[in-house]
Records
---
Amino acid sequence: MHLRELILGRTRALGQAFVLVLVLGAIVPLLHSSFWMYTLGTVATFSIAVIGLNVITGMAGQVSFATTAFMDIGAYCYAVFTTKYHVDPWLSLVIGLIAAGVIGFIVGIPLLRLKGHYLALGTFALALAFEGIATGANVVTGGPIGLSAIPALTVGDLSFASTVPFYFLAWSLAAVCVLMVIRLRNSRIGRAWLALSTREDVALSLGINVSLYKVLAFVISAVLAALSGILYVELTTFVSPDVYGTDFLIQIFAMLFIGGLATYIGPMVGAAVVVILPTVFSVSQSVSALIFELLLLLIIVVFPHGFGEWTENYETLRSFVARLRRQGRATGLQVSRYEKVK
Amino acid sequence: MSDTRAILQLENVSAGYGKVMALTPVSFMLEYGSLTMILGPNGAGKSTLLKAIAGLIRVFSGRIFYEGNDVTDIACHQRARRGLVLVPQGRGMLPGLTVAENLDLGIALGHWSNSGYDERSNLDYVYNLFPDLKEAFHKDCRYLSGGQMQMLAIARAILARPKLLLLDEPSSGLSPKATERVYDALEKLKTQGLAMIIVEQKLVPLKSTPSQTIVLQAGRVIHIGKNEKLSEEELASLYIGGEQSAFA
């Protein structure tokens, strides 16, 4: 079999996972619940930022805390251009994405020369800096109060500010992002990312321009974060510096690790857990937070590589079941089950 | 000034890590199609020398000429694209990638380095050299045996059609049989005119005589010999007592 055919074969298998996401996404509207559509629309929105974070951190192996900075850039570009300059929302969206990409490229070149903890600190400083700019630049950003009544994206009479159209828009974009990441991961770019994240010396000795591929991953991550930021503005018609603050950064990382690093559907699973769990356990705010954090802890302990690995790796699932069976035998569970059947 | 017969020439090259010098100034020349063995115990500076040649670390002093051009300040990936390819220590496997995907990285480098690169014929060439890889084509590389991993690392480099191949301890952690198979393949590459520098700690089952043997100890060259095959005893006494004790 030819090399390309085998690699494409693997891509096809992952394409099936993509179709599964589409199907799952399409089933939910049947529930006719605007609450769930809103919640799941939020899941799709955040999962786009997590997909971007997964590209730079999970695939290219560069720990970046800059996601919220680029969400700010996208969201504020969109909000400022639509409200202050009355630019068409679609054009504002494109401007927001381009701005994030260009800033990501310019900032990424010096920043990605740093490694390990220094890179993490550098990107964290970037996130704090943009939060500071959003708060301080009153005239443009509205300061701590932010900007509100931001015009929505429309197609004819259809406004994407409504829950149902937004739901479809967000999930379609999330699906496109998953597909793009699958294609990238299975291309030479993806293999180069894997090489540089595993062993940079190997990547270099294979002629891979490590700096270029790191910056590429950073720019993709920035653009996806900006898209997510813009979509959330679409959903809330509002933006302020608090929206994408440090708390939210922690949540984004929780989504990434719960979903699983370097997985395809993991970001969606992680976003779903972090967005849906608190709403399910919303008895009171303090109890909800406590239950949510305990559940997060439990998930991370039981599934250290995240859920995404399970959805994409049959071998992992099989070995987990085998391990449970072995443990069952050792503790006598097997015997009790046999007696039950009898 | 570089020698026109030389594919690689080092002039007083010293290198190290941070401020620590791991290799004192060394000079030698390597001709097209020739084989140089670099031997030395742990911490002798062998890998440092290879990394300096490949461009993975900056040299402290001296110049490196490759095909007559000064490449001292050229980045590692650019040297690789010019045909100076390193097979790093530890085989450099990329877990999660199949054998096919690993080979594809070599093919990518082949496309960057050579105009009119023929993917099919290069793959066939590699399969003839390492038939094991054809059978394990879609296997994740982490499930290969040590010998197969080493073969894959060499095959990945060979696919790039290098002019000079640098191998850092290719026999490390291999059984004697696997070492012999790897070295059989390397002998074939040598007869086909590929210039190589092989770094090893101990003597290896090499049938042909290397054009040059360099012995390093504690970061300095203690022996350079042309067209010679060192015996175990000679190497041991070099390690213990330097040049004079071995050839007294």
---
Amino acid sequence: MTIFMVNGQKVEVQLDPRESLLEVLQDRLQLFGTKKGCDHGQCGACTVHLDGRRVVSCLTLAVQAEGRKVRTIEGVADADGTLHPLQQAFIDNDAMQCGYCTPGQVMSGLACIAEGHAGDDDEIREYMSGNLCRCGAYVGIVAAIRQAAGRTEG
Amino acid sequence: MRSFTYIAPASVAEAVAAIAAAGPGARFLAGGTTLYDLMKLGVERPSALVDVSRLAELGTIDTSREDYLVFGGGARMADVADDPVVRRDYPVLSESLWRAASQQLRNMATVAGNLLQRTRCFYFRDQAFPCNKREPGSGCAARGGIDRGNAVLGTSDACIAAYAGDWSVALLAFDAVIDVVSPRGERAVALADLHLEPGDTPDREHTLAPDELIVRIRVPVSVAGRGSTYLKIRDRESYAFALASAAVGLALTGQSEVRECRIALGGVPTRPWRARSAEQLLRGQPLTKEAARAAAEAALADARPGTYNAFKIELAKRTVTDALRIAGERAAQ
């Protein structure tokens, strides 16, 4: 049995070593906010935080989460539904179109700010380059992160 | 995906014992960003994985010594890239890391695992095609195929796959050494002796045995560290593999005479590639634009293009020339 924390809740699952953390979040825990895009670590749609650091859950073996803390998009808003300032900033800045990449963008953006890699727009672009958006909402995404990082101009 | 046994040892000693006990086909698992990816494609088929990704004893970074910078094999790419001393005194090392992959992958991947990153040749990754690296003797679909991303230096009839990494290229320029542990004890390997050209056996990419674990990387302290850069040219500005790259370190006498010169290439070779002939041309000479271009010509003198990748030869020459200029500006400060 593998035991770890997801959004503050303890989970226990019997795993096949082949399963990715992404598959376990979706198929075992019914947490569908984390998205499968490429399944090869190239698109960033499956980004979650593992012990506070952003990783791609598709290339993380679920067994490697043993004893660790996982945070997904479902764990970002307050319990009463109040959005995190970065989620609100995505809405304010029209930072999505189809929305499929958005959970990964938000998880990556939260980490980008926390790491101190949101100093200016060039740095945001560099440190968000692991999250692809096929709709091309990049201008809004950069603006949302800039807003949430506490700056009004690039 | 083929099933495998997952083993999580509590120490390096346990890990080495576990891989010996697990027998043929067992592999060490670090960040997993290459290995698990290739397992999903059926290209890698380990019988057992010995997980070394959480061994605290492998995670140290020590940049305070007077002889070597020391990076534990399990240190994450993101942490070494952001180390303040590395950023200030060895920009070539920091840049080779933060210009690779994405921050998510750099949070996962280790600096030792990265050395053994496998090629991104499409034909290696796709089992529908013959590939001498994946299936020895099956042939090479890249030769005469879509070879735009493939190598022009160090190729053989059997294989033209480009080495995909960046960090190794920077380490090679600075004469790094790795320490490896196995059931037979510990030994040191110069980075220059780690990677192999494909020759007739492209499935053999390096000189380590499957049961040898890279426990640390040592980089000799160098005055050329401050005057260094890793310049990486890609199809897009970020998050792509190199079409051509250059790791350059310079120390100058006065404002422009080259005292120490280190040049290595990525993107275009089949393994990390030291350009010693180019270095020799520059030593003792003023670092002019013409001298830099002549060095770049020497570095690519043996390049052999395929069908669609001839552009990489000129691109690599310009990359070396630009990297020498950037490193020269830093060395003159």
